[in-house]
Amino acid sequence: MSLVRRIGEVPGLGRIAIVVSERGVVAVEVHSWVDQPPMRHRREPVVDADHVVIKAVLGHLESYVFRRTKDFPVACDFTGLPPMTRAAMEAVRKVPWGQTRTYEQLAATIPNATVPVVRDALARNPLPIIIPCHRALGHGHMGLFVGPLATKRSLLRIEGLDCTAVPDKPAAGASVRGRV
């Protein structure tokens, strides 16, 4: 079985590659995010081709950027992801549009999860925007993000949130065990 990938252009986000399987969306690769981790959780060959799900995802991304939609009603294929990563992604996917949660709040909803595990899982999210890891914040700071923090702020601004007063990093000496 092969994965299918197609690159499209989304206003405000630029060139984006969408990777799908027969089960759903596997990865969203934003080409302007030079530090975005590569898709490592799948080993199948990837072929470049058109796919109805890819076209739909690109349309949903454009609608999201222009505030015409708040949801991504697409199936996601989490095959190959560690169980805790999947749990963190499912937890943040439940955070409503225009709201945020701290890593601590998200970890509290997942049995046996810790704040660092949730934070690190979301920082490697292979499905950014669709799985809204931008809605996860550190305790008193922006937290990590799979792309640039400026993009995280932009995505939150699209959702009507003003995070200009939220610092990028925790204040010096403010780290408390379990609160990252």
Outline the secondary-structure elements.
Layout: E1 3-10, E2 14-20, E3 25-30, E4 46-48, H1 52-65, H2 83-93, E5 101-102, H3 103-108, H4 115-123, E6 136-137, H5 149-158
Parallel strand pairs: 1-4, 5-6
Antiparallel strand pairs: 1-2, 2-3
Helix pairs in contact: 2-4
Write a compact overview of the structure shown.
This protein is an alpha/beta fold and 180 residues long.
What does this structure look like?
The structure is a single chain. This protein is α/β, with parallel strands linked by helices. The chain folds into two domains: 3-65; 83-158, Arc Repressor Mutant, subunit A. It is 28% helix and 16% strand. The protein has five helices and six strands. It has a four-stranded mixed sheet with strand order 3-2-1-4, with helices on one face. Strands 5-6 form a two-stranded parallel sheet. β2 and β3 (25-30) form a beta hairpin. The termini are far apart.
Q: How far apart, in Å, are the first and last alpha carbons?
A: 40 Å
The arrangement of helices and strands along the chain is EEEEHHEHHEH
Provide the structure class.
Answer: alpha/beta
Helix proportion range? 25-40%
* CATH architecture tag of the largest domain: Orthogonal Bundle
Radius of gyration over alpha carbons?
16 Å
